[in-house]
Amino acid sequence: MSVGTERTRNSTTVDVRITTRAELALRGVRLDAEVARPAGAGPSDDGHVLVDGANAALPTNPASPYSVRDGRVWLGEEDTGIELSPVRRPKFYDLTTSDGVRYEQIARLHGSDVLATTVVQTCIRYAESDRCRFCTIEESLRGGATVAAKTPAQLAEVAEAAVRLDGVRQMVMTTGTTTGPDRGARNLVRSVRAVLEAVPGLPIQVQCEPPGDLRWIGELKDAGATAIGLHVEALDEQVRRRWMPGKSQVPLTEYEAAWDDAVRVFGHNRVSTYLLVGLGEDPDELIAGAAGLIKRGVYPFVVPFRPMAGTLAARDGLGAPSGELLSYVTDAVAELLKAAGMSGADQGAGCAACGACSVLKTAGG
Ligand code: SF4
């Protein structure tokens, strides 16, 4: 198929650039990435590259039909016209804290300019019966790629170096869920304060489960966070129970209350949630759910599910969604975002602002 033509699903027309970017997100590219994220919290497992100048997290896959020649993506012998350049290994990875921890065990470069960390690398929901089936938060810990808990001082030290040496422009702080009504927010508050003392003005997105006590949302804002991600991953109750046996015990009504409170505190389009494509949710219901989130002022960050090594999903042989399904949902949600005047960049910080794990930016969201 030549570049510039269009494919259709049902009666919806999806631009080929979106479908190609979706295929890249799912099938990956034959490339040795210098910056990669082998395992960790959430659904990502990728090499970090720039696609047409924008952050992209793509699986590095020796069996992919996509290759890179002269800085462009080729599908077999066809030049797709898409530019791709790898993200270079950042200088801060070569540094070590005074107490002997490598900086790259504390925080990692995502895309070309995002510093990402999992403040607490353990989760109360990681028993096999409770664990989200797409998550590997504790696998990277077992592999020695990271440390269980990052202190605020360590995070401040690494953030300062990453900004100074490697031009990092924003930071994402996520956390495994902890016991207690803050569900991890307390550690995020301390961490945000420490980083902003070291790097005043650095945009930071925090990510956690909806705190049982919503007061913590205000505390995170007061600490200086720019944006917040409260990630539901799926809106269909059956899908939630099947994929997230532990997390689905937090009812959707709690998410809705937390989203609304977060929009009140952080502002319209400063709150986001992941929605994973490929968990078996009806695509039109997923799109309708995204429309509801947009109406609330919450950015639905649509991301393909991919069965990362080490996940229960991979162990059970579950596969990624089709490129067609991902393109269909992404295109529809991007249209809704455009109609509402919401862009990922306007989040100011975080995954929606980075965009690497989604195809939404290519689709105009
Ligand atoms: S979208 Fe989020 S998880 Fe993905 S690379 Fe960007 S900051 Fe990291």
Automatic annotation (TrEMBL):
Matches recorded under Pfam families: Radical_SAM
An example Gene Ontology molecular-function term: 7,8-didemethyl-8-hydroxy-5-deazariboflavin synthase activity
Keywords: 4Fe-4S, Iron, Iron-sulfur, Metal-binding, S-adenosyl-L-methionine
Protein's UniProt keywords contain Metal-binding: yes
Gene3D superfamilies named in the record: Aldolase class I
Co-factor(s): [4Fe-4S] cluster
SUPFAM superfamilies: Radical SAM enzymes
Keyword match Magnesium: no
Sequence ranges assigned to domain Radical SAM core in this UniProt record: 107-346
InterPro entries membership: Aldolase_TIM, Elp3/MiaA/NifB-like_rSAM, F420, rSAM, rSAM_MSMEG0568, rSAM_sf
Entry protein name: Radical SAM protein (TIGR04043 family)
Organism expressing this protein natively: Saccharopolyspora dendranthemae
